[in-house]
Design brief:
Elements lengths: L6 H11 L5 H11 L16 H12 L8 H9 L13
Helix pairs in contact: 1-4
Length: 91
């Protein structure tokens, strides 16, 4: 699996960083995807579990060692609701 400092990950992070309107969604997603108790184990940052990240990369790109496409990150952050139930209409 790629290291977050590799170019594909850096480009994806920068793509979101350049769009302040995506920051709340990105922070919310980081919190949801972070390993439980991330503050107890190094690295002390809210990163997803490696096994979960490998699974997500394989299901989206067909390979667990793929780097995310920056356009996918910004498109997924702007498409659809940012929290469960948001955007649904109750009748």
């Amino acid at each position: 699996m790629h290291d977050p400092a590799e170019p594909g990950w850096v480009r994806a992070i920068l793509a979101v960083a350049r769009r302040p309107s995506l920051w709340p969604t990105a922070l919310r997603q980081a919190g949801r995807l972070a390993r439980p108790g991330w503050w107890h184990r190094p690295p002390f940052v809210p990163v997803p579990d490696r096994a979960y990240l490998r699974f997500r990369l394989e299901t989206q790109y067909g390979a667990s060692d793929a780097a995310p496409d920056p356009q996918d990150r910004t498109a997924s952050a702007t498409d659809g609701p940012s929290s469960p139930g948001e955007g649904r209409r109750h009748r």
